[in-house]
Amino acid sequence: MVLDGHDPLAIARAAQALADGELVALPTETVYGLGARADDDAAVAKIFAAKGRPADHPLIVHVLDAADAAHFAAQLPPVARRLMGTFWPGPLTVIVPRAAGVAAAAAGGQASIGLRCPAHPVARSLLAAARSLGVRGVAAPSANRFGRVSPTQAAHVADEFEADLLILDGGACELGIESSIVDCSRARPVLLRPGVLTLAALEAAAGEPLTSTENEAANDGPAPRAPGTLAAHYAPRATVRLFDTAALADMLAKQWPPGVAVYSRTALQACGPDGTWQRRMPDDARAAAQELFAVLRELDAAGAQQIWIESAPQAAEWDGVRDRLSRAAAAFNEPVSG
Ligand code: TXA
Ligand code: MG
């Protein structure tokens, strides 16, 4: 059931549910999360079961502040402290060494743990109310079934899970793509997943360059350190194909097949025939990120078989959007989807 996240009674009820080891879906400024108390392995197991996500994939633990973060960490490396100091509360997850015996299931058995302090007022109210009931952190992956597009509205969450799931409605997420993840548990910080924070902003706060990612993450062995880094992730049902501006125009000039939705920044010359769809992507990277997953869901729901998308610009502020687009497109070039 969906409850108004701005209603104090709903917050109290959801906090009690978390304390009792039940699942609660909560809004954050990035995407909606599917939460359980992080210190309760049985509660965390319900997340993996509901998502259909392998239990060795680590989850992010959401905390109210740096003091609660310290509870889950063996230590907070200086680079993690600098990043937290700059971006918390906000769309940044740090991976740090995990405190012994704490939140093992949430960490997917890793020796490290992902920590994030969200800025969304509903998430903060919930974390504060839960803390007063003894809950120091809430493990919450994105509230979608494994491999699907992350939800950015309460209705998206309701579409994915059983009707009895308690969902706090906090409106449409302001940022729309998942947090930037920086692994601070190694000798050098590694950007595991880009978000809306630019690499330059992260490096300025970190005080050192960040290594980036994919090969690093892949080198860690068969269990990916971050499922969001699997190539085939964040996929709608429709097949996603990416085109540069000229290639898209060429394709459409030849034929705009029925069942094809086009999502482009450039205005199109032509209109498609019946049974096609057309959406304009905003020119602004933030605005594009904010609506991206909702648009993919809408086009899926409308019945599109394929979504042809104009590639995002190379500029740094588009890194997060480019990453999600290429993963959505990769899903259909690979045998296994995440
Ligand atoms: O914006 C977000 O980060 C959203 C909201 C709900 O906070 N959460 C989210 O969670 O995207 P999830 O589980 O879908 O993706 C989090 C990523 C996963 O790919 C997970 O494996 C990675 O963080 N992660 C968590 N703990 C980790 C660890 N100890 N080592 C490496 N990666 C970790
Ligand atoms: Mg996810």
Brief summary of the model shown:
By secondary structure, the protein is α/β, with parallel strands linked by helices.
* Radius of gyration, taken over Cα atoms and rounded to an integer in Å: 20 Å
Class inferred from helices and paired strands: alpha/beta
DSSP strand count: 15
What is the average of the pLDDT values?
A: 92
Main CATH class of the largest domain: Alpha Beta
Largest sheet: 11 strands, mixed
Q: Helicity level, as a percent range?
A: 25-40%
Quote the beta fraction. Answer: 15-25%
What is the CATH superfamily of the largest domain?
DHBP synthase
Give the H and E element order.
EHEEHEHHEEHEHEEEHEHEHEEHEH
Would you identify the regions where 5 or more consecutive residues have pLDDT less than 50? 215-225, 334-338
Main sheet: strand order: 1-8-2-3-7-4-6-5-9-10-11
What does this structure look like?
With 338 residues, the chain is an alpha/beta fold. The chain has helices at 8-19, 41-51, 66-72, 78-87, 121-131, 154-160, 199-206, 214-218, 245-254, 285-302, 319-330; strands at residues 2-4, 24-26, 33-37, 60-62, 92-97, 112-116, 138-139, 166-169, 180-183, 190-193, 211-212, 239-243, 260-264, 277-280, 306-310. 33% of the residues lie in helices and 18% in strands. Strands 1-8-2-3-7-4-6-5-9-10-11 form an eleven-stranded mixed beta sheet, with helices on both faces. Strands 12-15-13-14 form a four-stranded parallel beta sheet. A hairpin with a 6-residue loop joins β9 (180-183) and β10 (190-193). The longest helix has 18 residues, at 285-302. The model is unreliable at 215-225 and 334-338 (pLDDT under 50). It binds threonylcarbamoyladenylate and magnesium ion (MG).
